[in-house]
Amino acid sequence: MAEAAENLPPVADIFNPHSPEYVDNPVPQCLALAERGPLVWYEPWQAWIMTHMDDIMKCWKEEPLSSDFYDWEFAPQRPPEDQWSNFERAMIGHSLLADQAHHRLVRRVTAPAFSRNVVDNIQAKIEPEVRKLFDDLGEPETFDYIEEIANHIPFISITRMVGIPEKYWPQIKKVILTFTETWNPTISDEQREAARQDSNRAIDIIREVIAERRLDPGQDDFLSTLLRIEAENKGFEEGDIITLILALIGAGADTTLVAQQWTVYSLLRHKEQIDTALASPEAFSNAFCEINRWGVSSKMGFARYAPRDMEFMGQTLRKGVMVLMMPHLKDYNPDYYDNPETFDVTRTFDPDVMFGYGPRYCIGAALAKRQLFLTVSELYRRFPNIELAEEPERDPGDHNAIVFKRLLLRTNCA
Ligand code: HEM
């Protein structure tokens, strides 16, 4: 029987994703938090945490809460429209996040931009760049996978995918690395503000790129596709294109970087499963779910905000309060997975929720998996005898995920 709440230690004592213990092994803390109930108040972040999968799936699907960062009680004030900077224009004015009806419209009209054909074309552009990374690497005895390969992948794929010309790359590089900090509630106001400034500059560049592209539209990338969609769809405008590009940067950069590290690390820890994992893009797609489950790299989860004072899952939520959905809490729970300690790339995932679920399902899922498959396959093709040169030290400094300080690999190619 559950212990009376007054006999239990405060939640912040059993769960702290920024603690060294969590970074070292998040599993006991994740399990302990989920034990506290389906919706748990987390004082340090002034947020509710949703811990059970059936509630999370329902919330993903039915969207009773807001996804708009500006609905958060601690978000900066929404300034009047005549004072909007680039950032506010993109995040409020045409927000993909704010208005559910507009979000559905954007998802519907942009679906062709993520069709199989377009993803294949984008992939074809990324492939030579990935090969070049490995060519430049040569055949060193050891190398840091993060420094030499993983760090470059989000940038390569986002610039190639969107179609940002090389002359703009140095300016856009920084924002790709810091964009998600603009709305992270767990970092300082100063850090968030600095990230916002970077975004303002990046939006100027994106505007320039769009203006150039309007003069020379016939290219085979995401931007040209979006400009065609803009011409054909009332209600979808340049502001939506900018917001969408920012969303791709925000959602596609950090995630890819983390995924690269954990994919290589997990597979090298289980070398006997590499051939199975890389047998086909489909096999890899399943293996990636297992990599993600086994690694439990998440520190935060997915944020939503109460749109008004409301009753929700038996609790009274004040307007603007944050609710974090944490699907990763289940990853070592034996009620969800048999033998959760065992890494098995053929494990069945039903449902597979790695990329979310429902109306906000990840736009970039196909691209992310293909890009990972491509890079990791190239790594093993070049270095069939590669191994971890050391157990990597974890970096406690990352705001969002458990990552490694470096991932030193020994090529054994001599
Ligand atoms: C391994 C890498 C990735 C993972 C694990 C991942 C996971 C997710 C998840 C779980 C969501 C839902 C978030 C929520 O409900 O709040 C999401 C949304 C999204 N993802 Fe990804 N993602 C990845 C890579 C990418 C990439 C490469 C792109 C862009 C090319 C991308 C673009 C997006 C966008 C735009 C959304 C918001 C969709 C919407 O609100 O309609 N993601 N992603």
TrEMBL record:
<dbReference type="InterPro" id="IPR036396">
    <property type="entry name" value="Cyt_P450_sf"/>
</dbReference>
<dbReference type="InterPro" id="IPR001128">
    <property type="entry name" value="Cyt_P450"/>
</dbReference>
<dbReference type="InterPro" id="IPR017972">
    <property type="entry name" value="Cyt_P450_CS"/>
</dbReference>
<dbReference type="GO" id="GO:0016705">
    <property type="term" value="F:oxidoreductase activity, acting on paired donors, with incorporation or reduction of molecular oxygen"/>
</dbReference>
<dbReference type="Pfam" id="PF00067">
    <property type="entry name" value="p450"/>
</dbReference>
<keyword id="KW-0560">Oxidoreductase</keyword>
<dbReference type="GO" id="GO:0004497">
    <property type="term" value="F:monooxygenase activity"/>
</dbReference>
<dbReference type="GO" id="GO:0005506">
    <property type="term" value="F:iron ion binding"/>
</dbReference>
<dbReference type="GO" id="GO:0020037">
    <property type="term" value="F:heme binding"/>
</dbReference>
<keyword id="KW-0479">Metal-binding</keyword>
<keyword id="KW-0408">Iron</keyword>
<protein>
    <submittedName>
        <fullName>Cytochrome P450</fullName>
    </submittedName>
</protein>
<comment type="similarity">
    <text>Belongs to the cytochrome P450 family.</text>
</comment>
<keyword id="KW-0349">Heme</keyword>
<dbReference type="InterPro" id="IPR002397">
    <property type="entry name" value="Cyt_P450_B"/>
</dbReference>
<keyword id="KW-0503">Monooxygenase</keyword>
